[in-house]
Design brief:
Blueprint: E1 5-9, H1 16-29, E2 34-38, H2 44-55, H3 64-88, E3 92-96, H4 99-109, H5 114-125, E4 132-137, H6 140-150, H7 162-178, E5 183-187, H8 192-206
Parallel strand pairs: 1-3, 1-4, 2-3, 4-5
Bound molecules: adenosine-5'-triphosphate and magnesium ion (MG).
Length: about 210
């Protein structure tokens, strides 16, 4: 049996990184080897792309088309260099964002054509589709308040307007409705502990652990 892919999606500040840590501990308690991935990045090429996309202070004028292609380039490398070999070694991959993020951010929020984003997503990942996608859903204002408390410097995408994040959230909810067998949506205003319990219970049942 091959490993599994579980991706986490949601706007900034919904608690993805928090919950990923907890799910990792849970899976390891079941003797499953876990590989954690965050997009963009992980490979050498991906980390160079991450810097360009998020932190390089000299990047002021990236057009949406370039942004999409850079995310897809990072993703294509990640799939072939890390995810496929890890699946073959029966590891489970937990992705902090995967191709649904491009549908939501570059597609809905930056308003690139949906069909183009879908095609590039497919081209980048091939057959590597998550077995399960956990969507942490929250009101945009609440998520942005949480991020302000975090007090790190905002990256290029985190500095976008509230309308931008509303489009992202709506797209995620639409994807979850359209692909209801792949998505598990959770109210991210619940406490960290309650969310973790819901996720672990669901994963345990779904994969018969
Ligand atoms: N269920 C929760 N209730 C209240 N606050 C939470 C909850 N989960 C996480 N937080 C807090 O919200 C902030 C954002 O959480 P986290 O970094 O896990 O989000 P994220 O989705 O990974 O964000 P990003 O997309 O920016 O990486 C942190 O300060 C975290 O402690
Ligand atoms: Mg995070």
């Amino acid at each position: 049996m091959l490993g599994k892919i579980i991706s986490f999606e949601g706007i900034e500040g919904t608690g993805k990184s928090t919950q990923i840590q907890r799910l990792k501990i849970f899976l390891e308690s079941k003797n499953i080897e876990v590989l954690m991935i965050r997009e963009p990045g992980n490979t050498y090429i991906g980390e160079q792309i991450r810097h360009l996309l998020q932190h390089d202070p000299n990047v002021h004028n990236m057009c949406p088309e370039t942004e999409l292609l850079l995310f897809e380039a990072s993703r294509a490398q990640l799939v072939r260099e890390l995810i496929l070999p890890a699946l073959n070694e029966k590891k489970w991959i937990i992705c902090d964002r995967f191709f649904d993020s491009s549908a939501a951010y570059q597609g809905a929020a930056r308003q690139l054509p949906k069909e183009i984003v879908e095609q590039f997503n497919r081209f980048a990942v091939g057959n590597c589709v998550p077995n399960l996608t956990i969507l942490l859903d929250i009101d945009v204002e609440i998520a942005l308040q949480r991020l302000q408390q975090r007090k790190e410097k905002k990256d290029r995408i985190e500095s976008e307007s509230i309308e931008f994040f509303r489009r992202v959230r709506e797209k995620y909810l639409q994807l979850a409705r359209e692909e209801s067998s792949r998505f598990f949506t959770i109210d991210a205003t619940l406490s960290e502990k309650v969310i973790a319990e819901k996720i672990c219970t669901y994963v345990q049942e779904r994969f018969a652990l």
